[in-house]
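Structure in, sequence out. Go:
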């Protein structure tokens, strides 16, 4: 069996903070016990503060795809026309859910090393005033590219459409919050930049989106996919629709405390600095970034092209076996073309970016590897 790589610089799940690991060892409480219900309400409040929003967010008890699919099911009614913005694998994936619930899905797509142009969004909304919902993946992780959410958010708000955003791999690692960006449903995860475990979806829903969801006769009710079922679940005495993932809630609580104690601005700077060191180091080695322009690169993951003479798995395996550094491969359309260095939570550490560059420089100077010499 291979040893566990000491440096797991993946793009999620990521190594968790020590405080999170410790919280996972706490006694499991009965969910109807007031002590747990009060604790849960406290976690919702900490999450609300982290998200910098006025109303209470909801937590769904499954990894972030649950939240994204639930958002589509709740908000998109059969009269809705959805503009799906596609700059990568996750953005593209949303189209399937949008098509399941909506009347029509219009796609505005760019190559997966590029980002969405806000002007193109404005033009599409002008041409199609019947668009009622826009969906965007903020950081499309398999490409390491970051979309201009704030500009797009302003344009969508002017048009009056609702905006659904997958911010799974950006929130907690940079300055992005639902209200600042005019987002109606904002989905994130504890298992990326917050440095907690996979297993929950963290969702902010604007008041006007709740009104639309409540008026949507097809929004799931009495279903595991029901976003509505979790509305108000943190209010005193309110029942949970299903048993919450108690240990994951403890872990999230510890991660939110850590985020607040370190200070969000400090956390974001740490992510940005780590990513800058990774980008500059890769370029100095003569490697090429996957995103078309350096300014498209996300601060939470750095994707670079596989150099000639290597395959993605060869390079990944050598980093792992010779240097103890685990990177993520590409995914779907980007598979085989790139490797990704995650800078998320614990791994947003400049020393890890430097270690990756040193390891890559050694491998590139000895392309055949120890076993092939
Ligand atoms: C990690 C991630 C998710 C969560 O989904 P998985 O594919 O199950 O990991 C959703 N959206 C984005 C952009 C992610 O990076």
């Amino acid at each position: 069996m291979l040893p566990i790589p000491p440096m797991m610089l993946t793009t999620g799940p990521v190594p968790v903070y020590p405080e999170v690991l410790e919280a996972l060892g706490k006694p499991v409480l009965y969910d109807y016990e007031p002590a747990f219900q009060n604790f849960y309400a406290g976690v919702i409040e900490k999450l609300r503060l982290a998200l910098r929003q006025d109303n209470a967010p909801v937590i769904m008890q499954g990894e972030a795809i649950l939240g994204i699919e639930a958002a589509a099911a709740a908000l998109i009614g059969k009269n809705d026309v959805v503009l799906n913005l596609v700059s990568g694998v996750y953005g593209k994936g949303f189209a399937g859910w949008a098509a399941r619930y909506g009347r029509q899905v219009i796609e505005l797509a760019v190559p997966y090393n590029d980002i969405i142009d806000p002007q193109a969004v404005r033009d599409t909304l002008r041409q199609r005033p019947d668009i009622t919902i826009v969906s965007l993946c903020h950081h499309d992780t398999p490409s390491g590219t970051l979309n201009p959410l704030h500009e797009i958010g302003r344009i969508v708000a002017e048009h009056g459409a609702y905006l659904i955003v997958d911010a799974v791999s950006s929130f907690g690692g940079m300055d992005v919050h639902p209200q600042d960006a005019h987002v109606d449903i904002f989905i994130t995860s504890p298992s990326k930049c917050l440095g907690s475990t996979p297993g929950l979806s963290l969702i902010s829903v604007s008041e006007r989106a709740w009104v639309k969801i409540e008026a949507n006769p097809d929004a799931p009710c009495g279903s595991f996919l029901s976003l509505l079922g979790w509305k108000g679940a943190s209010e005193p005495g309110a029942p949970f629709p299903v048993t919450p993932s108690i240990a994951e809630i403890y872990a999230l609580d510890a991660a939110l405390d850590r985020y607040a104690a370190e200070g969000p601005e400090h956390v974001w700077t740490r992510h940005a600095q780590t990513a800058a060191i990774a980008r500059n180091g890769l370029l100095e080695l003569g490697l090429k970034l996957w995103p078309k322009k350096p300014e498209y690169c996300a601060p939470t993951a750095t994707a670079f092209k596989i150099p000639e003479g290597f395959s993605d798995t060869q390079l990944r395996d050598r980093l792992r076996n010779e240097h103890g550094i685990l990177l993520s491969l590409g995914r779907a359309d980007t598979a085989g073309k790139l490797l990704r260095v995650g800078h998320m939570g614990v791994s947003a550490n400049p020393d890890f970016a430097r270690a990756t560059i040193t390891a890559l420089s050694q491998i590139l100077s000895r392309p055949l590897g120890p076993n092939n010499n």
